[in-house]
Amino acid sequence: MALSLDKISEKAPGLLSLAKTASQAVDLSGLNGQKAKVAVALDFSGSMSKVYGSGAMQRLVEKALALATQFDDDGAIDFFIFDSKAAYLGEISIDDFAGSVDRLTKGRNMGSTNYADAFLTIRDHFGFAPAAPPKTGFFGLRKAQPVTTLAQSTPADIPVYVLFLTDGAPDNQSKAVRALTEVSTAPIFWKFLSIGSQSMVFLEKLDTLTERFVDNANYEPVGDVDAISDAVLFKKMLTEFPDWLKEVRTKNLIQ
Questions:
Q1: Which of 9, 37, 54, 198 has the fewest Cβ atoms surrounding its Cβ within 10 A?
Q2: 194-222 pLDDT per residue, tens
Q3: Which of 90-108 are b and which e, b meaning 16 or more Cβ less than 10 Å from the residue's Cβ?
Q4: Cα dist. 222→37, 192, 194 in Å?
Q5: Do 234 and 168 form a contact (C-beta atoms < 8 A)?
Q6: Mean pLDDT taken over the chain
Q7: Are 207 and 192 in contact (CB under 8 A)?
């Protein structure tokens, strides 16, 4: 059940306009009444320093939070970043969203770009890891699990929607492909967004992988996150999500 606009107006008036626009986008997508947990995973590599410094990532998180109010009545999102490794930094809610990105990333050094650890960390955080401990190979790296085995024995109550934003390809592309394939047995939808003047070929590749248990990702280039209108951004955020929900229900990943 969505958080009411009256409650948003009372507790987070700065989000009200965004929440109204998000509500309209959800209505147009046909997702009315759909529940989901919403998370963001932001690239924290060195090339992103100016984007964080401009406040653009804070503004994007606020838009993700506004979308989350339409899917879940707790008025909160889970916040992850990824650089050389991925990390869960906490929850951002309508009560404390102001300045949340700077507050939660304070003291963390920017690194390289590790998609694979982000995929696996988020999958594990939401409790969708395979029952058996993941096997390790050389250098302790986790090996991908067969995609023919479901990640959980019973369907999940609600799916997870992850907004994944980056400005560049990962350091290890083959590991990213294996990891996204492995997590395709979990009820997690990955919405890839890229910033910059051109589309990202590698994200286009991830969008079209053929060996996954379900098609668990969609890619949309956004360029400048501040230049795109809120209505268009929310439409991009929701592209393919309804189709994915139908597929994961047929494969018994969600109720």
A1: 198
A2: 998 888 999 999 999 999 999 999 999 99
A3: eebbbeebeebbeebbeee
A4: 23, 10, 6
A5: no
A6: 91
A7: yes
Q: What's the pLDDT tens digit per position in 18-47?
A: 999 999 999 999 997 899 999 999 999 999
CA-based end-to-end distance of the chain: 16
- Give the torsion sign (CA, 127, 156, 24, 243): positive
d(CA 228, CA 213): 33
How far apart CA 137 and CA 157 sit, in angstroms, is 33
**What size, in residues, is the chain?**
255
Chain Cα centroid distance, residue 111: 20
DSSP 46: G
Backbone angles phi, psi at 206, to 5 degrees: -60, -30
Dihedral over alpha carbons 240, 243, 245, 251 (to 10 degrees):
-130
Rounded-to-integer distance, Cα 239 and Cα 253, Å: 20
Of 179, 170, 227, nearest to 200 by C-alpha is: 170
Under DSSP, the state recorded for 37 is: E
Is the model's pLDDT at 145 over the cut of 70? no
Instruction: Please state, in angstroms and rounded to a whole number, the distance separating the CA atoms of residues 121 and 88.
Output: 8
Residue 241 — left, alpha, or beta (φ > 0 → left; ψ -120 to 50 → alpha)?
alpha
